[in-house]
């Protein structure tokens, strides 16, 4: 349900932060934002074969997003500069004006800026940014551990945003203003705060407030619908090599919101799960980017998800990035598992 090769690398190296920020090769439609941007296909689900491995996967009918009641937004003050942001090291970073040339080393920030109509401020990003489609035309200047500092300097940005501290000293030594804020790893409701923060940074607080309010309203709608549900089916989300995540991750929090029994919920962060544990816990749904890996294991033939064909790949899952589209992933899984409610 995310850019899994990156996440596996991050888990093996004990850097789950990298995975959450780098996002993945995704291809879904954003929920229409306050500012216009290019449309993209809606999320789809690919189901694994229910009888035998090796059958071709086929996309199911895309599911519509939840209808959310509209409301009159609270007036937001105009942008005020200079503005000061406190980074993850506790340092105060002052911006005298809205940055016009941003190097954004974080997929969530890239998606936020496009969602509020300010994507044209991004002059470069990291190697793994994949959404929206417009990012294909934005220069790439490396990854979390191989940033091309010279290329960044050559672009003459007035702000460099990073989710990791590795290159702060080198960038600042070159005279660049650097904002370091760690990627959100828990409490997905705080995505709305991040959206508002970037609205303040680029001088568009009103537009950002609308996007953030829509995000929050849709989360609240899901919470209200799920209120009477006491317990849902059991699920497992697996990465290549049968790495999975506990309930203290963003994805785990989504499962809890939807009253789903994450059979790996007891682990902390990311860890491998054994085939024996999967068989014993017998999940009703398995989410994976590699259904064949599941069907190739003979012991899984009796697992409920395999027998019923509920081994699923959510193509373009917005849960890969803690940005505005995250709520689409929540709504999509809710509709998939509780069609009678959503």
What gyration radius follows from the Cα positions, in whole Å? 20 Å
* Percent of sequence in beta strands: 15-25%
Helix/strand order, N-terminal first: HHEEEEEHEHEHEHHEEHEEHEHHEH
Q: Distance between the terminal alpha carbons, to the nearest Å?
A: 21 Å
Number of DSSP helical runs: 12
Overall pLDDT, averaged? 83
Number of strands: 14
| Biggest sheet record | 8 strands, mixed
- Sheet/helix structural class: alpha/beta
Uncertain segments are 1-44, 47-67
Query: What is the global morphology?
Result: globular
Helical coverage, percent range: 25-40%
Keywords:
four-stranded parallel β-sheet; alpha/beta; 342 residues; disordered N terminus; 31% helix; globular; eight-stranded mixed β-sheet
Would you kindly provide a written description of the structure presented here, covering whatever features stand out?
It contains twelve helices and 14 strands. By secondary structure, the chain is α/β, with parallel strands linked by helices. The N terminus is likely disordered. The protein is globular and about 60 Å long. Helix 1 packs antiparallel against helix 2, helix 6 runs antiparallel to helix 7 and helix 7 packs parallel to helix 12.
Summarize this entry quickly.
By secondary structure, this protein is of the alpha/beta class. The protein has 12 helices and 14 strands.
Helix and strand layout, with pairings?
Layout (H helix, E strand, L loop, with lengths): L3 H9 L3 H7 L21 E4 L10 E2 L23 E4 L5 E4 L6 E4 L1 H9 L6 E4 L23 H6 L4 E4 L5 H6 L4 E3 L10 H11 L3 H22 L7 E6 L3 E3 L4 H8 L3 E2 L7 E3 L2 H7 L3 E4 L2 H5 L8 H4 L3 E5 L10 H12 L5
Parallel strand pairs: 5-6, 5-7, 7-8, 9-11, 9-13, 13-14
Antiparallel strand pairs: 1-2, 1-14, 3-4, 9-10, 10-12
Helix pairs in contact: 1-2, 6-7, 7-12
């Amino acid at each position: 349900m995310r850019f899994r090769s990156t996440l596996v690398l991050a888990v093996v190296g004990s850097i789950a932060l990298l995975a959450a920020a780098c996002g993945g090769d995704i291809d879904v439609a954003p929920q229409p934002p306050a500012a216009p941007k290019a449309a993209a296909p809606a999320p789809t689900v690919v189901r694994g074969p229910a009888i035998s491995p090796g059958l071709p996967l086929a996309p199911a009918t895309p599911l519509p997003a939840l209808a959310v009641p509209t409301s009159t937004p609270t007036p937001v003050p105009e942008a005020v500069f200079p503005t000061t942001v406190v980074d993850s090291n506790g340092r105060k970073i002052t911006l005298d004006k809205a940055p016009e040339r941003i190097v954004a080393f974080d997929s969530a920030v890239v998606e936020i800026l496009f969602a509020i109509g300010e994507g044209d401020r991004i002059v470069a990003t990291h190697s793994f940014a994949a959404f929206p489609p417009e990012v294909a035309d934005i220069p790439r200047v490396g990854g979390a551990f191989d940033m091309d500092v010279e290329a960044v300097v050559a672009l003459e940005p007035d702000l460099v945003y990073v989710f990791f501290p590795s290159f702060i000293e080198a960038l600042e030594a070159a005279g660049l203003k650097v904002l370091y804020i760690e990627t959100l790893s828990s409490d997905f409701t705080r995505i709305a705060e991040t959206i508002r923060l970037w609205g303040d940074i680029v001088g568009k607080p009103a537009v950002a407030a609308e996007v953030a309010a829509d995000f929050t309203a849709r989360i609240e709608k899901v919470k209200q619908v799920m209120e009477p549900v006491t317990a849902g089916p059991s699920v497992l989300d697996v990465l290549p090599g049968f790495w999975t995540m506990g309930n203290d991750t963003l994805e785990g929090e989504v499962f809890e919101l939807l009253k789903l029994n994450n059979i790996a919920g007891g682990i902390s962060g990311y860890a491998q799960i054994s085939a024996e544990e999967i068989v014993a816990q017998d999940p009703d749904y398995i989410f994976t980017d590699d259904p064949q890996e599941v069907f190739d294991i003979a012991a899984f033939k009796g697992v409920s998800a395999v027998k019923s064909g509920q081994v699923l790949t959510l193509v373009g899952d917005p849960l890969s990035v803690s940005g505005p589209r995250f709520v689409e992933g929540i709504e999509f899984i809710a509709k998939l598992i509780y069609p009678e409610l959503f």
